[in-house]
Design goal:
16 helices; 43% helix; 11% strand; 9-stranded mixed β-sheet; 436 residues
Length: 436
């Protein structure tokens, strides 16, 4: 599903448009959906360079994607890393994302003796005043704050961003990258990558932004604990708009399912989600919360950022493939990424007439040849791998890319600055003169 918020007062400027990307969370399957959608945008929009946008904003799994693109990992390479798993640079291990948080379990269990002693002392003082609710609350203090270990995720991202000429430092990227997390003890959104928070390693910021309570433990940074950035807002597209983006591309991979619509289309949905038990009910509740906040934010964007265009990509509300896939499963990642790729191309195709003029405002256009190709697939452009590069050749390659982009951006600027030539030929029948 493609949601289009066209600017009420589009800014007419002689300079090129600023383009931003805002990517929401959604666990591993959300990240895979985002990779497929990004690949489709990259293929289908002429003039869009996913590695040279003006601002990148990411939360949770979306922070992986945003940071990777800002760090020169192409959509092709992201597909190789996370989908086909045949990257020459990085070997992605799905088990790293679902490794039990052993140290967190042990740390919490170490508090069991103290809790028992406290309970016995309380019983001795008030033997006839026991309250089950109070006991359950105290028992909760020994439960782990997360099931899975996120240290392995941080190590993977750190390795990815310190190899082949890339950087794990916000200040060295050359592109504005903002990763949003929430400070646990205040509930405030923290924008890593902005002044005052740009000294935190990118991999550490990603770990904090993806620490969904109950699944991953809070992350300690500068003496404060941080959790998933989705607790405040779904996409944080406003961060890109505040940074001056004239066009924001946004992706929210998690939406609630409409079982009636899905069943009517023959998609094999149950008559009621209650049949799936507590996990399915909680999933529907969480997705509904995320989408409703996103829908509530769009009118605010229209009022506050009337000069910015927004393109929001989401799954359809009858998308059983996205809803009934285990949020932490990588088993069918190829099918899911292909599904995201094709559904994004379908959205662009359906809205072609509206998108054409909107994209043109920003120096972009749709590639009709891509949209009208019935045989096009996600992995079609991945057959030929680039040559292996050492650290030195990777840095040289990045420098040459920077030079190419700088020259491309300078061309229209020089064209605007070049004054029109004056006709210096004398007018026939009159003497020409010059000022001394």
């Amino acid at each position: 599903m493609l949601v289009i918020k066209a600017a009420h007062k589009p800014v007419r400027s002689s300079t090129r448009s600023k383009i931003g990307l805002a990517v929401a969370g959604g666990g591993p399957i959300g990240g895979i959906f985002e990779v497929g959608a990004m690949r489709a945008l990259d293929d289908a929009i002429e003039g869009l360079d996913m590695n040279a946008l003006d601002v990148y904003v990411g939360i949770s799994s979306g922070a992986y994607i945003a940071a990777s693109l800002a760090n020169r990992l192409t959509t092709t390479e992201l597909c190789r890393i996370f989908v086909s798993n045949d990257s020459d640079q990085f070997k992605f291990k799905a088990e790293d994302f679902v490794r039990p948080a052993i140290w967190e379990y042990l740390r919490r269990l170490s508090g069991m003796p103290r809790l028992l002693l406290s309970g016995l002392a309380e019983f001795a003082r008030h033997p006839f005043d026991l309250r089950v609710s109070d006991s359950l609350i105290k028992l909760g203090s020994i439960l782990p704050t997360g099931l899975f270990d996120n240290e392995a995720i941080e190590r993977f991202m750190r390795k990815a961003f310190t190899a082949h000429g890339r950087s794990n430092d916000f200040r060295e990227l050359g592109r504005k990258l903002v990763i949003v997390a929430v400070e646990l003890d205040s509930g405030q959104a923290i924008r890593f990558g902005t002044p005052g928070y740009d000294d935190v390693p990118i991999s550490r910021a990603i770990e904090a932004s993806s620490a969904l309570p109950g699944l991953y433990p809070p992350v300690l940074i500068n003496g404060r604990y941080h959790v998933d950035g989705a607790l405040r807002h779904t996409v944080h597209a406003s961060v890109a708009m505040e940074a001056g983006a004239d066009l924001v591309l946004a992706i929210n991979p998690l939406v609630p399912i409409d079982t009636a619509t899905a069943s009517a289309l023959g998609k094999g949905s149950p008559s009621s989600l209650i049949e799936g038990g507590l996990p399915v009910v909680l999933s529907q509740m969480f997705r509904t919360l995320l989408q409703s906040r996103m829908q509530a934010s769009i009118p605010k964007y229209e009022r506050k950022y009337s000069g910015s265009d927004l393109l929001l990509i989401e799954p359809e509300n009858d998308d059983t493939d996205m809803f009934f896939t285990n949020i932490f499963s990588f088993a069918n990642r190829h099918d899911l990424a292909e599904h995201a790729y094709q559904s994004t191309l379908n959205d662009l195709r359906r809205h072609r007439k509206v998108l054409g003029p909107l994209l043109q405002r920003h120096g972009l256009s749709l590639r009709d040849g891509v949209l009208d190709d019935p045989d096009r697939t996600l992995l079609a452009g991945l057959e030929q791998k680039p040559p292996r590069r050492s650290q030195a050749t990777s840095q040289l390659h990045r420098a040459l890319e920077d030079l190419d982009r700088a020259l491309e951006q300078e061309k229209p600027a020089r064209k605007r600055r070049t004054p029109a030539r004056r006709n210096t030929a004398p007018v026939r029948g009159k003497a020409s003169s010059t000022n001394s």
